[in-house]
Queue: 4 jobs
Job 1
Amino acid sequence: MRKLAVITSGTKGIGRATVEKFYESGFDVVTCARNEKDLKALKEDLSAKSEGEVFIRPTDMSKKEEVLAFAKFVQDLNRPVDMLLNNTGVFIPGAVHEEADGSLEQMIETNLYSAYYLTRALIGNMKTRKSGHIFTTGSIAGITAYANGGSYSISKFALLGFTKAIREEMKPYGVRVTSVLPGATFTASWEGVDLPKERFMKATDIADAIYGAHALSPQTVVEEIVLRPQEGDI
């Protein structure tokens, strides 16, 4: 039987690239997104490439009840989760002292709580099996604050702290935990920016890095993956 990868927000950008990488490498995949049409298109595209299984569920990961419903969807498959990528995120630019009221709450709920609740729901089986790998898609904004990053940086610093905590907690159980901290990656969030595409990293490079870290032996964990454009941050 193929191993199972759970990847949130898998229809675009880094999420989609990682879904494709693991699926084409022999994994079945469970993924979610808010847009059901995009999910069905993704499933159709992948199913045309191989005989693996793709499980999809429309989900708004900024809402706790939806996160827990997605977790139950995964659990009801009655299959061990070999890899979990908490990839859901939103970016709203703005300075802390100027951004719209509610910006912090929205980004904390989406960028942090989605990972917190889903990980808590799925980690028990990993602990029991003493096997599994948890990734979080953070950002270099979670290690270096920058102007106009505001609450986005706050949420990503918090996500890195969460991942570090889980890493320490899972050491006795053989569950690997990795923070993925990419810089500017060419995804839909950068559309319309007056910069050449070559200035950005490729989403497939992030996916390759995640897969490479997961492919190491169980005795080794890459705790943090920091990736930046060759010419530096944007």
Note: The chain is about 40% helix and 15% strand.
Job 2
Amino acid sequence: MSDYTIWHNPKCSTSRFVLQALQDAGADVAVRDYQQQPPSADELRDALKRLGIGPRDLLRRRNTPFDDLGLGDPALSDDALIAAMADHPAVIERPVVFGPTGARLCRPKETVFDLLSA
């Protein structure tokens, strides 16, 4: 079992930076391309709980179908947002790292060092 798991997008420079930082620190990292292997609604709920954030805080707006899906509508419930993320993983902000001391949305990318030093 790995020490860390990263929800990773190999096309994203921030995600690549965070993965490299974990590897440079000697961490055993499980890499999950979350767009190829989308998290389920239950996995997203668990991740949000571990991150201590709400679904709106995990939404990516740029270069995603965020607007087309109407995800900016304040009337949408948390369950509706989570379902949208499970169905359209491109709207999940990245990278998300889960480790032995907690979980972090590594934006800005330097946030990974907080997780490594905890």
Note: The chain has one domain: 4-117.
Job 3
Amino acid sequence: MQDISLGPYSIGAGQPPFIIAEMSGNHGHSLERALAIVDAAADAGCQGLKIQTSTPDMLTLDSRAPDFMVRGANPDWEGQSLYELYTTNFTPFEWHAPIFARAQARGLVAFSSPFGTEAVDFLETLDCPAYKIASFENNWPELIERAARTGKPVIISTGMADLADLERMAHVVRATGNEQLVLLKCTSTYPAEPRDTNLRTIPHLRDLLNCHVGLSDHTMGTGVSVAATVLGAVVIEKHLTLDRADGGPDGSFSMEPAEMAHLVRECRQAAQALGTVAYGPTAAEQKSLGFRRSIYVVQDVAEGELFTAENLRVIRPGHGLAPALLPQVLGRPARQAIRRGTALTWAVL
């Protein structure tokens, strides 16, 4: 499958993972704080910055009936209605342009998760370069199709989706003629536990649907994202906040800036470490070959004298014949006189 271009970056096998900082509601209803999160993402080395485009009315009803109350999810959400939760979480439409502009100035590719087809229409007026479909929206073909019809990359989180769901969402995107699809393995709990993450799904899903696969990571720390990189994740998405102590609907499972910078470094090192299938000394190891063992003359040897276990030893450095050749040289005569400390070579046999 071909790499996907997103701004100046390429997403695909053989590339380091494209790392997205998810702002979500961590702006705390402050544009100044939102712009500070953009700066923190850039300073941490992220390539992408994602926000969310919604209104509470786009998502649900203003109701406190039992069906609309949050129960058993994140403790910070407990007891709120869905409408109340989304009121604390949404990013005002008028903030999108300054956030996108700050991101572009800092070298980030900024895009959004639309939560309705009208959100896609709005984002198109800002020339949004890609669309991310959240896990809770991945069962809504109309939204996926609207995003795919823009012809831009579509990134879909797969939380809660079964195989039928996954095949349907891939079909919906491709039916529009758009092949720029990335699925993100996702566990839709907040925070998520590593034991529930099932990262072995990443290469399986890639081969099953012949598409790029990454990770939307709600676990704490960097370990899961690094492991996903090793398994071939081409995108890593993590929530970013300035300080978890500031709270907010997503604060408890978000990374702080120093942690995000650590994640970026570790994922890139993991990607570099994969390399290729290789045996034998690497170019970097050439200088170390001298510290291996080899066969050396350890007593002065006269011309014609036989080599023995007393006048030969396998020692460091590695400039003589390989230790495995010792049985072949024992008992053979020296062609010339050899001083103690000389590396044994075929020339003196």
Note: The chain has two domains: 4-54+90-274, 283-348.
Job 4
Amino acid sequence: MLIKEYRVILPMTVEEYQIAQLYSVAEASKQETGGGEGIVVVHNEPFDVAANKWPPKTPLLGNRGTGQYTYKIYKLQNKVPKFIRMLAPSGSLEMTETAWNAYPYCRTVVENPGYMKDNFFIKIESMHVQDAGTQENVHQLPPNLLQKREVVYIDIANDKLYSNSDYKREFDPKLFKSSKTGRGPLTNRPWWENFDGPVMCAYKLVTCEFKWFGLQGRIESFIHTMERRIFTNFHRQVFCSMDQWYGLTMEQIRKWEEETKKELDDQIEKGPARGVREDD
């Protein structure tokens, strides 16, 4: 089992990020869906801790008793490395994503119930705080897990991208300047030093386990490499899309999500293949 805490520092408030994240997840889903692959949104509805719609025996950080529950299916046949496709039976590369968004705390669990069952999971616990990633144990880990945890800072403007194909000029924080807020471009190294504006951190604790003899270490390392890639690319897009989401209300975001769900359902059946394919 590998545990890493990714600290993604962003030029916005925690309140702004709640809207930004939801908007950008919907947009990113469109970019990864088509040609029979991508994301199917099955449930997107409120949850209440008191109504037992929260995982049992797990703490709810952030002092929230309600939030938004989502359940998604990921069809990934050509979005994983060749060596995994060679080992996995046909139809086995469907993942489920269950998420509880009790902002500022969120928990997401990715599983493969049809094939790997209890031998595989990725758990992402996110806490969003108005600081520059300075808290040492924001997730309240016990000493034994704190000792295993590795901290990784992500600089969305200056970190090297995983692949040249990940670079999109329109999502380059070193070039973008928001017309609505005046924030950007992010040119310092690290960019948040002497930044004249709000700074927050998304603390993302990622725990993954892949029980397969001879492959466990390789796959778990690959998962963390991909998680860092996703966090970097996604948050570059979050910042550089600021003029699209800034000023939206939660009511507008929920309507946007409903429209996106309908579009995804249509794209996965009729649209062309899209997004990152792991042989790129």
Note: The two ends are 28 Å apart (CA to CA).
